[in-house]
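ok, trying the design again with the full structure, not the truncated one.
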């Protein structure tokens, strides 16, 4: 029943070319949430709420999701989808640019999912690290951007995005306090944790 409703949301988004999370990326994230149920999730880039709705199944009892979307029309549709799935109160949408909204948040999140403007990933990273719980997990979707990020790709109109994604990878892999894996699922998924000090 709910599964059917969720499938409708997914199909509609795919038909409208809304870049929702890919199945293999979702599976990878779900595997990790299953091992460690998050209480507080932050998502940057709601679109129509598909990924947030999927993540909500893995929340611990008191858990909730804060998610940010700058496109008002999409945020409105996400609100409707959340209602349809009976998840009001579990998923809170902030409507606006995450670059402006993130600095106003002061929570500790067990899981953060970055999935919005690629050129803003380094800013999203900084804000995410400020709010990530010590044993939290940070995901960044589309980190390999159709292979452009690892290629010698420079003469493209998306080169700012590529440069910023490379900067995100450098900052998460070269920081001695962080542990980062880059998986080739979907459009590339970066998974970062804070290293445990002994
Ligand atoms: N996480 C969603 C898909 C998100 S698509 C899912 O898997 O179902 C990326 C979304 O990020 C788009 O809807 C876009 O409007 C939004 N976005 C892009 N830049 C943003 C920004 N700076 N602040 C907030 N939202 C942004
Ligand atoms: Mg994505």
């Amino acid at each position: 029943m709910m599964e059917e409703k969720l499938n409708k949301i997914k199909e509609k988004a795919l038909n409208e070319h809304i870049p929702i999370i890919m199945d293999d990326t979702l599976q990878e994230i779900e595997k990790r949430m299953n091992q460690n149920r998050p209480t507080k999730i932050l998502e940057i880039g709601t679109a129509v709420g598909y990924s947030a709705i999927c993540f909500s199944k893995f929340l611990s009892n008191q858990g909730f999701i804060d998610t940010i979307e700058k496109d008002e029309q999409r945020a409105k549709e996400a609100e409707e989808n959340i209602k349809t799935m009976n998840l009001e109160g579990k998923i809170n949408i902030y409507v606006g640019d995450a670059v402006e909204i993130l600095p106003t948040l002061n929570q500790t999140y067990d899981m953060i999912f970055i999935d919005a403007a690629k050129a803003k990933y380094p800013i999203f990273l900084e804000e995410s690290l400020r709010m990530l719980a010590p044993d939290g997990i940070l995901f960044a979707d589309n980190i390999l951007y159709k292979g452009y990020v690892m290629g010698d790709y420079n003469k493209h109109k998306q080169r700012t995005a590529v440069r910023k994604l490379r900067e995100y990878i450098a900052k998460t892999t070269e920081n001695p306090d962080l542990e980062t894996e880059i998986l080739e699922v979907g459009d590339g998924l970066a998974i970062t944790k804070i290293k445990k000090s002994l």
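Keeping the full-length input from now on. Residues 159-174 form the longest helix (16 residues).
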